Amino acid sequence: MMPLTMMKSGETATVCRITGKDEVRRHLAELGFVVNSSVTVINEIGGNLIVQIRNSRVALDRSMANRIMV
Predict the structure, then answer these.
(1) Beta-carbon neighbour count of residue 65 at 10 Å?
(2) CATH number of the domain within which 56 lies
(3) N or C: which end of the chain has fewer CB atoms below 10 A?
């Protein structure tokens, strides 16, 4: 298990765990980041990520992406 920020562009993984406070986990769940969902890194710019999850592209800053364990 590793944080989402460790993935390279083009890699796909399965979300294993989401860390952080309840409100942060709830926000990420609303964006589609739930356990056992598939996530693909589209691009990485300065530590910030653009990922594809559930047919949507989402931009995440480094601190938010570090809370998603794959």
Answers:
(1) 24
(2) 2.30.30.90
(3) N
Residue 48 bridge partners (DSSP) = 45
What are the DSSP calls for 9-41, one per residue? Answer: TT-EEE--EE-S-HHHHHHHHHHT--TT-EEEE
Q: Please count the structural domains in the chain.
A: 1
C-alpha distances in Å from residue 1, one per residue of 8, 14, 49, 56, 68? 15, 10, 18, 24, 10
pLDDT tens across 5-61, in order?
999 999 999 999 999 999 999 999 999 999 999 999 999 988 899 999 989 999 999
Q: Is 65 helix (H, G, I), strand (E, B) or coil?
A: helix
User: What is the H or E stretch that residue 59 is in?
Assistant: strand 56-60
Residue 34 belongs to domain spanning:
4-69
